[in-house]
């Protein structure tokens, strides 16, 4: 039981490049989330999903897109990366009470 | 979701109880109090949650005041591995809103001292 896994763990991009972050969970959770965390700050919600095929905007959705084609996977895309998107990205999935977080992806945009 | 206020940082001696306060004076009747912690660079970890009664699990105890305007997370015997940022979050359960979003503030940085 791996819980929540994230791919990749680290990535460096140049401004304007695109990439996709992959989140996978094996707990059969309906809800999945993408957060970002900037230095010295708490997590901020980017997008979330309440089930396969559904997505919704969170607190800071601009510059990101998401897809939930399969229940176990939640993808976060950056179409044209900007230095302001340098951050640590956390994925989570949940049942009704507890959110389970992945180990994070550290992204640097130069 | 109601806003929470926590001290920026606290120290605790190893082996002693760590008491982390949280104010949530605007909490509504069906909002729950959740606690998470984040150990350096890792993803946050769920600790405990409650509505109005005190709660205890293998990690911690949660004491909620009778008026529900504040709460305290208690780590009964703090160890060095409990050094982390602790987040107090007030939110509805997903059946009330259709989602289960958590709004993190900056939390309390707890340092356990040997």
Total beta-strand segments of chain A: 11
Secondary structure tally, helices of chain B: 1
Shape of chain A: globular
Residues in helix, % of chain A = under 10%
Percent of sequence in beta strands of chain A: over 45%
**What's the total helix number of chain A?**
0
Order of strands in the sheet with most strands of chain B? 1-9-8-3-4
Helix content of chain B: under 10%
Give the topology, please.
The complex is a heterodimer of chains A (110) and B (114).
Chain A (H helix, E strand, L loop, with lengths): L3 E4 L2 E4 L5 E7 L5 E7 L5 E7 L6 E2 L7 E3 L5 E6 L8 E8 L4 E3 L3 E5 L1
Parallel strand pairs in A: 2-11
Antiparallel strand pairs in A: 1-3, 3-8, 4-5, 4-9, 5-6, 7-8, 9-10, 9-11
Chain B lengths: L8 E5 L4 E6 L8 E7 L6 E6 L4 E2 L4 E4 L5 E6 L8 E8 L2 H4 L10 E6 L1
Parallel strand pairs in B: 1-9
Antiparallel strand pairs in B: 2-7, 3-4, 3-8, 5-6, 6-7, 8-9
Structural key phrases:
heterodimer, A: 110 residues, mainly beta, 11 strands, B: 114 residues, five-stranded mixed sheet, four-stranded antiparallel sheet, 1 helix, globular
